[in-house]
Amino acid sequence: MWEKNVNNKKILVLGGGISGCAVAGFLSDKGARVTLTDSKSRDDLENALTQLLNKPMEYILGAEPEIKPGSFDYSVISPGIPLDTPLVKKLNQAGIPVTGEMELAYQYSKSPFVAITGTNGKTTTTSLLGQIFADAGRPVFVGGNIGIPMVTKVESLSAETILVAEVSSFQLETIESFRPKVAVILNITPDHLDRHKTMEEYTKAKSRIFENQEANDCTVLNYDDLRVRELGQSTPGQVLFFSQETELAQGIFVKNGIMTIKTGADTMHVIDIDHIYIKGKHNLENALAAAGAAFCLGVSPESIAHTLKNFPGVAHRLEFVKESAGVTYINDSKGTNPDSTIKALEAFDQPIILIAGGKNKGSDFTKLAALIREKARALILVGEAAPDMEQAVRAEGFHNIYPVNNFFETVSLAQKMAQPGDIVLLSPACASWDMFKNFEERGDLFKKLVHELP
Question: Catalytic: 145?
C-alpha cells in the first residue's frame, strides 16, 4: 500500500516519457529520493527531461538499475512498459511494490474521478464530457491518457472539481485503490493483443476500472457491445446502460431519433440526434456515453443538449483538414486499430481513398478488409503492417492497392487519384510507432502535407 508521506523514501520511476517525468517531478517535490530509469539514452530523452532540471534525483539511462530487496521502497511504472518485462519481474521478486501514475494521482486527489475507457472513442468522449461539465458551470479538469498526466494537477484542484480522466488498459493494470465515482466503458474490440495476448486478458484489464466502486457509484456501459454488457453483472456500482439500437427499460437510448433517458418512472428527452454536432454512428455512441456519465452527476438534460449541439470534436479524430478541387481531406490519425478505422469508413457515404498502415498491434484485418472492398475506391498502404493489410484486402477480392515507401508519398498520390466528391481519409488502423513518436505527429504531418497541396 502506498504511503502518502514519501519524504526520504527511495522510489524508482520506470520510463522517461511524459508520464514518468511527471511522476518523478511530483515525487521529488515531496522529498522522495527518486531514481529515474529508462532504456533510452539521455540524448533520446532530452526534451522530456527538461522539465526535471534543478530537481534532485538520480538517473540510470540506457541501462538497468540493480534490483535487490531494499533497493527501493516503491516503484512507479509508466503505462507503456509491459508488466512482464525482466525489470518489473525483478521488482516483484524483490518485494518492491509496483504502481502506476493513475493510482498515484488518485491517492493524492481530493476530487472525484470520472474515468473513461474503451478501445475506441475515449478521447472524444472524455473531451465531450469535460465540455458538458464546463458548460453546466461545474469546475472540471480533463486529463489522463488524453495528454496531461493527472498527477501534475490533482493536489492543486478543489474537492468540488470533477476530474475527467481518459484511462487506458495499460494504466488500469497497475491500479490498487483507484475508485472513480463514475466509470465508463465504451466498447471492447481487439486491440493491444501484442501486450494483453488474449481478449479475455484485455477485457479483464478494462474491467478493473470499476473493481473498487461501491454501491453509490455509477458504471456506464455500452449495451450494444455484448462483451461490455456482460460486465454489468460484475460491477459493484449502479449500472447505467446506453444504447443506440435498443429501447432500454432503464438507461439512455435512442427512440424515434431522440436521445432519451429513462430512470424509474421518469422519461426525459435530451436531443434530436440529428442536432448533435459531431456526426457518425461512433460519435452517437460517444455522445450517449458522455450524456449518461454527466446525468449520473446531476447535469440536466437541457444542459447536456446544449453542449451536444455545439461540441466540434477533437483533433486527429475524423478531423476536417481541407477541401480542394472538390476533394475532402480527413485526418483520423487516432484510428490506431481496425475497429476504429471501420467506424471511420462507416461515417461517410462518398467514395473513399483510404490511407492506412503503420505498426500492427496484433490485430486481425479481415473484417476491415471486407469493408474496404465495400467502401473504398483505392487503398494507399504505408509502414510495417502494409504487407499484412494488403494480403487481407486482396483475399477479399479488392485489388486497387497502392503501397508507398514513406508517409510523404501518401498525400500526393491520393491527390492524383482523387476525383471531385471523393474523401481522402487517413485512418491507419495501426499504431504510429514504426514511423512517428505518436499518432499526433502522424496526423500533424498529414495536415501539413494536405495544406501544401497546390
Answer: yes
Which of 122, 153, 181, 316 does the annotation list as catalytic?
A: 122
Q: What's the confidence (pLDDT) of residue 42? A: 84
Does residue 330 sit in the same domain as residue 443?
yes
Each residue's pLDDT tens digit, 234-278:
999 999 999 999 999 999 999 999 999 999 889 999 999 999 999
Instruction: Note the pLDDT tens digit of each residue in 104-159.
Output: 999 999 999 999 999 989 999 999 999 999 999 999 999 988 778 899 999 999 99
Q: What is the dihedral of CA 446, 376, 228, 279, to 10 degrees?
A: 70
Instruction: State the average pLDDT for the chain.
Output: 94
- 8 included as an active-site residue: no
CA separation, residue 108 to residues 4, 101, 140, 169 (Å): 7, 11, 17, 21
Among candidate residues 96, 127, 160, the one where a domain is terminated? 96
4 belongs to a structural domain: no
Give the residue ranges of DSSP H helices in 94-198. 101-108, 122-135, 169-172, 193-196
The catalytic position among 181, 192, 282, 316 is: 192
Does the annotation mark 47 as catalytic? no
Q: Is 3 part of any domain? A: no
Select from 96, 32, 39 the least CA-distant residue to 68: 96
Compute the residue count for the chain. Answer: 454
Residues belonging to the binding site are 118-124
Residues 116 and 152 in one domain: yes
Residue ranges making up the domain that contains 187: 103-310
Which positions make up the binding site for ATP? 118-124
Last residue of one domain, picked from the residues 73, 96, 119: 96
